[in-house]
């Protein structure tokens, strides 16, 4: 790409220089040739270019100023004649004209930016050097010492009750921290935060305009240590908001509900809607709780629009909530397909939704997907054929938690609540087998805040069955499962008739949404699951009616197990310009099967796996471990019941190319192990005394091509420590090779960041 740009530049330059018009052209008036910035230490040139528009060209440009000016004048002439500009339109960034006003304006803007960011004594000087109407400007920056907040602030509030709230905010909730660098934008945000805090305390009319925050220059005349002076109110005109310091309580909400055609709705669910309002009569007004209430109503999926206004003509705030209902029925259908090894595979997806089926706020969802898609065979992976897959699911959803009232009361304030009950059915028809899975579930979901999410499933039943046709392909597949069983892999259990029941709980804290944008944040997930709990109440630990229902002639697997998993991820921006990021994750999990009827084995899907593009990238997907086990084939997945995994990744920007090319350096570590009970290989078992000797480590470099709407990722990873090797041969980094061998480079391609 670089060579092509150079060649293009040479051809363009030769063509223009050979043009007589360009050769004889002279710049008619002074233009900026180059802008230099010197003396800046604590604020980078990139930051100044971004925030001070007059110096955005403070770098060497690709083409000469004369050429930009010539093309700019030529384009203007064509535009004035209403002639479509030629291919040179892409060079439409002429050098700015120079004059003394331009120089003074940019000096003031740079100095103002420094002052806004805490450098109150910054001074800007300029030097100008010109040759034949080409002007080089140098801004010499003397930053001086920055000013810092001391938090030794003073307060003046006319209303004593309001003063208590403000003083409490400054001590406990202020976004200004001691020894933080002065930032005028932060003072503006502080006004907004204080206003928001007071509006949550019942001050409906309070606004940022009522807050005055000044720098107190009495305590330190050098302005090196900044204390603030809060004055409330500080309206230019006190009559604008006369009730800024008045507390308001809530009156009874009034609903106006229209059907999809704008007519008054029949049988409006007033009582049900009132339960979704988190503020009740006589409560102090809170902007956050009312926003939660609106979100509660919107998340019912019953209304196109949800709006609220307040009647303030009386002594209280009376909410008037206007709602327009969605259509009762919605149907969507999608026809698509895929191509695998040249074989087309069509699929059809349908979704049907019925609102207000049993009550005024519930909705019923039904969806199906049928596909006849091409896949490779299990035994002969070069053999490709179409396989039939059918998925159906149906659920009824209610916008409340159907729990005993004493339990709901203990949850406190929450929003986004939903109770779902449903059934699902999956059918797969391959030459090797026919597999069905019937799923019954019930779950509760709710939020305690914008960042905290809870899911509790009291019922989750799965009834799985596999039928093998009498064919050579099916016999070969059963033989393959038996080989895996002898190697310690329990994949065969997924194809035995099984009954898996569980109760589960999940908590997620997430203060950022996963995206391609690099930013600060963290994610924490906790999952708890108890499988087969009710089986403990039965002497045989089995349900006889399930065995009779399948009537397959095989023993039905009933599982009893406990499972815990943790996931913590932290993202922190680095550098003055916040252009790079350090990302960290740590995963842990343990699954304990206490049912001896299955030799202490877990359902295959409840095992932990490690390795692959989003895990330890120096190993193939799901092929690392368990422990120091030496696998005889890369085709065999390696499940485990204990997981430890961690990754550290440094992400940084490289250069734009039809999007943005980013890079990353990473280190991955971890492994899975088996419990000591049951028939397991000793090399796969977890022992507290030496598990750290079985931690696998990999490292590598990655490229990310960010198109905003999606990100294409390529990671090259190599093993550093291989736990499967003998004790004195675990260090394998020197054996890294692109040509195979003991430690080949692993190429991982994916969409989005690995975590």
Walk me through what this model shows.
Residues 30-144 form the POTRA domain. Residues 417-750 form the Bacterial surface antigen (D15) domain. This is BamA/TamA family outer membrane protein. Its main location: membrane. The longest helix has 17 residues, at 100-116. A hairpin with a 3-residue loop joins strand 23 (642-656) and strand 24 (660-673). The chain is built from twelve helices and 29 strands. The chain is α+β, with helices and mostly antiparallel strands and 755 residues long.
Write a compact overview of the structure shown.
This protein is of the alpha+beta class and about 750 residues long. The protein has twelve helices and 29 strands. The strands form five sheets. The chain has a 17-stranded mixed sheet that branches. Strands 4, 5, 6 and 7 form a four-stranded mixed sheet that branches.
Could you name the key traits of this structure?
755 residues; 29 strands; transmembrane; Reg_chr_condens; alpha+beta; signal; BamA/TamA_POTRA; 17-stranded mixed sheet; 4-stranded mixed sheet; D15-like; single chain
Q: How would you characterize the largest beta sheet? A: 17 strands, mixed
Could you tell me the radius of gyration in angstroms? Answer: 34 Å
Total beta strand runs: 29
How would you describe the shape? globular
SSE class = alpha+beta
Beta-strand portion reads: 35-45%
Mean pLDDT across all residues, rounded? 85
- The portion of residues assigned to helices is 10-25%
